[in-house]
Amino acid sequence: MPDAQALADRLGLDIPANELHGFKCGIVYPIRRLILTGEDNPTNLALLLGPLWETKASDTVKKTRIDVLLCPPPGSPSHTMAQHWDVGAPHWTPRAPSAEEEAELTKVRDMQQQLAGQLGGRQEVGTDDIRQMVMGMGANWADNLGTLEAAMNRTNQGVGR
């Protein structure tokens, strides 16, 4: 446990969190901090999340890495959330994306361009916009819902203003 506490201190994590609910009590808080600082390796993930982190949190790690690497703009839902998670972070030095992550980043950026075209200069994403985007995906629409969600959450929608 001393190694985990030393890592948490180095990352600027408030562990144990003094909140019973909120941003610091979830699993994204320590994962995001590891990713922000470029210390998201299997050893550190196991130190903070336990030895079964891969079976319990690997999807959250992947999604959070994409979120950090996209560097969401102000006004996006992801940026608004990040403002809470990133308080006290010592530095912003995420690792470079892997080839697989780069492909996912490209998919999300392409979807953001499609979304921008759908919105036509508006910021607010409505139900009709989502419906049109899904209909435009064709037969494999279900395979692209995660990418659409990522694109919407990382697009300036005037959130938090």
What does this molecule look like?
- The protein is 58% helix and 0% strand.
- The mean pLDDT is 89.
- By secondary structure, the protein is an all-alpha fold.
Arithmetic mean of pLDDT: 89
Largest sheet: none
The DSSP helix count reads 8
The rounded distance between the terminal residues' Cα atoms is 41 Å
Roughly what fraction of the amino acids lie in strands? under 5%
Briefly note the structural class of the backbone. Answer: mainly alpha
The total count of strands amounts to 0
Label the overall shape: globular
Q: From N to C, what is the helix and strand string?
A: HHHHHHHH
| Rg for CA atoms | 17 Å
Question: What would the keywords be for this entry?
Answer:
8 helices, 161 residues, single chain, mainly alpha
Describe the secondary structure blueprint for this structure.
Layout: H1 2-11, H2 28-36, H3 42-49, H4 53-70, H5 77-85, H6 99-119, H7 127-135, H8 145-153
Helix pairs in contact: 2-4, 4-6, 6-8
Summarize the structure.
With 161 residues, the chain is mostly helical. It has 8 helices and no strands. The protein is globular and about 50 Å long.
